[in-house]
């Protein structure tokens, strides 16, 4: 298939990913969606998860945080608070973060509120999933 | 007239100072350039999120959000003061502090202050501001992680009802030579609306409310980061100007001191010659 979709993943710090691809998988709050070329204009709420893009050159996995996505005329722009390409993720750090978040969730007396710990947990899991899905272990 | 050795010591000490101010000016210039680079990145991001926000807020779409709706009764107000991390930047810190003091003096509701920046903890405490929290460990080139710390804190404060309104106080960066103390309301948010609804008939996935929630989260983080960057750029610019002035002043001082030094040397030589001539004359007289 021709790579017709222009995918950009942007954070406030700069553009993390910018490339052409033929198919994109996005983690939305109501469940993941797959986008092929000539998708109807859509705005979606992105949750912590993995964006997968498929092109002739192969597959790329990018861990993203909360954000929004704007799909229109074969342009996909993901705006998110954090984004990291799978090859840049420190697996050990993500695993540590997951463990810490789980500890905080079980420790009810701590000053950490559940919402923050849960958010941290989802982020850590998303980052590890990105690495797993890209096949780099 | 001061003696030569003293003047020489002064000159060398002024020269040392000049080297320091020159170096500091250069460091500030480099940091200024780096922070300005960060501002360019954030502008692109802000433009994109603005487009989505427009789509959600203009036209017939009226979606409500917990960050947008003003509260009926505003009892507690929080001011976030963005101050420099160091001194030696002219009136930058003092100007913003005085500005904040004026605002708080006029504020009749319950007010608290959150300080972002390391400068002058004692001065701020002495100024009588009701500081509830200080973010002191912010770097010279603010990044998203630091902005998230602050913005998450402010969001929690707002949602828990500790504050019904949150305002940011910072130096607005007009140019490298001019920064203007200004305020901006962060929460409840008042995003600009450019008004021109796009022609795309968007599908909202899963629904407009959750998208708006996410956009607002991004918008708030983004606003905090951009204000942080702006304040920092202003600080570096102010420091650059101050250090440039200081370097000029030392050059002038060195000029003056060298003149004094030359005069003193000339005077010493003249005295010496006079003494020698006097001595020779005395010897001549004695021989006769």
Order of helices and strands of chain B: HEHEHEHEEEH
Total count of helical runs of at least 4 residues of chain A: 2
CATH topology-level name of the largest domain in chain A: ATP Synthase, domain 1
Q: Can you tell me the CATH superfamily of the largest domain in chain A? A: F0F1 ATP synthase delta/epsilon subunit, N-terminal
Radius of gyration of chain B: 30 Å
Give the CATH topology of chain B.
Pyruvate Kinase, Chain: A, domain 1
Shape of chain B: elongated
CATH architecture descriptor name of the largest domain in chain A? Sandwich
Shape, principal axes of CA atoms of chain A: elongated
Distance between the termini of chain B: 38 Å
CATH superfamily of chain B, please? ATP synthase, F1 complex, gamma subunit
- Poorly predicted tracts of residues of chain A: none
Strand content of chain A: 35-45%
Strand order of the biggest β-sheet of chain B: 3-2-1-4-5
Mean pLDDT of chain A: 86
User: How far is it from the N-terminal to the C-terminal residue of chain A, by CA?
Assistant: 29 Å
What does the model show?
The complex is a heterodimer of chains A (137) and B (288). Helices cover 26% and strands 44% of the residues of chain A. Chain A folds into 2 domains: 5-86, F0F1 ATP synthase delta/epsilon subunit, N-terminal (ATP Synthase, domain 1, Sandwich), CATH 2.60.15; 90-133, ATP synthase delta/epsilon subunit, C-terminal domain (Single alpha-helices involved in coiled-coils or other helix-helix interfaces), CATH 1.20.5. The mean pLDDT of chain A is 86. Chain A has helices at residues 91-106, 114-133; strands spanning 5-11, 14-21, 23-28, 31-35, 42-46, 49-55, 58-64, 67-72, 75-80, 83-85. The radius of gyration of chain A is 16 Å and the shape is elongated. Chain A starts with a strand and ends with a helix. With 137 residues, chain A is an alpha+beta fold. Chain A has a 5-stranded mixed β-sheet with strand order 2-1-9-8-5, with no helix packed on it. Chain A has a 5-stranded antiparallel β-sheet with strand order 4-3-6-7-10, covered by helices on one side. Chain A is built from 2 helices and 10 strands. A 5-stranded mixed β-sheet of chain B has the order 3-2-1-4-5, with helices on both faces. In chain B, α4 (144-159) crosses α5. Chain B is 59% helix and 15% strand. The longest helix of chain B is centred in the C-terminal third of the chain and has 80 residues, at 208-287. Chain B has helices at 4-57, 92-106, 121-126, 144-159, 208-287; strands spanning 76-82, 110-116, 131-135, 165-175, 178-187, 203-205. Chain B is elongated, with a radius of gyration of 30 Å. In chain B, β4 (165-175) and β5 (178-187) form a beta hairpin. Chain B contains 5 helices and 6 strands; from the N terminus they run αβαβαβαβββα. Chain B is of the alpha/beta class. Chain B has a single domain, classed as ATP synthase, F1 complex, gamma subunit (Pyruvate Kinase, Chain: A, domain 1, 3-Layer(aba) Sandwich), CATH 3.40.1380. The model of chain B has no long low-confidence stretch (mean pLDDT 86). β5 of chain A pairs parallel with β6 (203-205) of chain B.
